[in-house]
């Protein structure tokens, strides 16, 4: 075998491209790299599809300067993409998380625009696209994930027009008036339009995208389709008499492995742990739970303000209710996140200082993540799940809480600005900016009769159990298959309901 043949990468018929790989690396006792599975919502959705199709996953290993050859891990073919420390700072922490993230979340925090960040974003997207093109076999399906890689679809199409390309945006897509602020708005739209199918969490997101395309690029849109002009004589004619490639842009709301979460919630050890949690909190009448990444989009300050005012007003006491807030660390090198952490911790300290007793704490605050089993115990222990996101693509925590509540009890208070609000209409929907309304909703949830709680939770559970993460991926891949009839991704075996769920 020649040297060239040895270096030729393996080819795959199904390729997933995301910023992060589905594995994390650690070091063993000898200092050698060891790879560990890192289950999350996306991994849970696509793992069975990957196995059924002998697919490959292209992504960054999570450490600057780490460059390793492709390898197989637990039945999944892993294709790492290296990033330098400078690229992590400019492409990831900079353009992705300090430009796009705040812009796409309604400018809750001001975006920062730097040309060197944009240049790094283009360069890294090119590297991801090249790696995906190298490992995709002729006529393969490539599914690109999320806002860090919005240029990849067009870059892929330019070098591999034989591919069927999908893109899914896991965060909101902003209205035209906000998106237009981005200096590189046309380039991002053109990058996304390289895909055959573009998926969004909500119908509003798909509508925002189509309107931006129509106004900024001048392309014809007939919801849910967009006509992209092409130089291809074999392409169909649009109503305007132009050769076009038709792109589907619509909502595909993501979900969780609901059966896996329910199975965990039925384990006696996890139910016992839920009882321990309540005892450790002093057995208050009501446990209110918030679970979020520590992010300014999650409305953590708003729920703490509402809870603190309820204590101040005398409508609640610490013997009546405890707020448990899990805020897992997030982007701790970004200045806005460091400031948010300081503010939240000061607020927790002030409220606890004012209202805690020797036996009861007002807010039980935890700035770290927990294993999935502990999260399920927390969900079981909580009488009220409080989701106050100011803007959220979906919010899978809301769905996880519902899936766990096989007792048909518990109340979900859900921000109307979370994508999950479109589906979970039997929750108590709130505007988190309306502190008075939020306070009244918390009190309504506390006083709600069990009969009404059960009616609401049953309706929520039907929705979450019927529309799980496997159905989400199936619908998206079916839409991709429609682009190229005769080539369909193999369906995975039906879940046994004992798998693991998405990360909070």
Task: Provide a short characterization of the protein structure.
The protein is of the alpha/beta class. The chain is 42% helix and 19% strand.
Describe the structure.
- The protein has 504 residues and is of the alpha/beta class.
- It is built from 17 helices and 18 strands.
- The longest helix has 21 residues, at 115-135.
Sum up the structure in keywords.
504 residues; alpha/beta; 18 strands; disordered N terminus; disordered C terminus
Overall body shape: globular
- Please mark out the parts with pLDDT under 50 across 5 or more consecutive residues, or reply none: 1-5, 495-504
Strand pairing plus helix content: what structural class?
alpha/beta
Note the total helix count: 17
Number of strands: 18
Radius of gyration over alpha carbons?
A: 24 Å
Helix content: 40-55%
Biggest sheet: strand arrangement: 5-6-4-1-7-8-9-12-11-10
Q: Provide mean pLDDT, rounded.
A: 91
User: Separation of termini?
Assistant: 48 Å
Q: Hey, roughly how much beta strand do the residues contain?
A: 15-25%
Largest sheet: 10 strands, mixed
How is the topology of this model organized?
Blueprint lengths: L2 H5 L4 E9 L2 E5 L5 E5 L3 H13 L2 E5 L10 E3 L2 E5 L4 H20 L10 H21 E10 L6 H8 L4 E5 L7 H4 L5 H8 L4 E4 L2 H14 L4 E2 L2 E5 L14 E8 L6 H8 L2 H13 L5 E8 L6 H14 L7 E8 L6 H21 L7 E4 L5 H10 L2 E4 L8 H9 L6 E5 L12 E3 L4 H13 L2 H17 L2 H15 L21
Parallel strand pairs: 1-4, 1-7, 4-6, 7-8, 8-9, 9-12, 13-14, 13-16, 14-15, 16-17, 17-18
Antiparallel strand pairs: 2-3, 5-6, 10-11, 11-12
Helix pairs in contact: 2-17, 3-4, 4-5, 9-14, 10-13, 11-12, 11-15
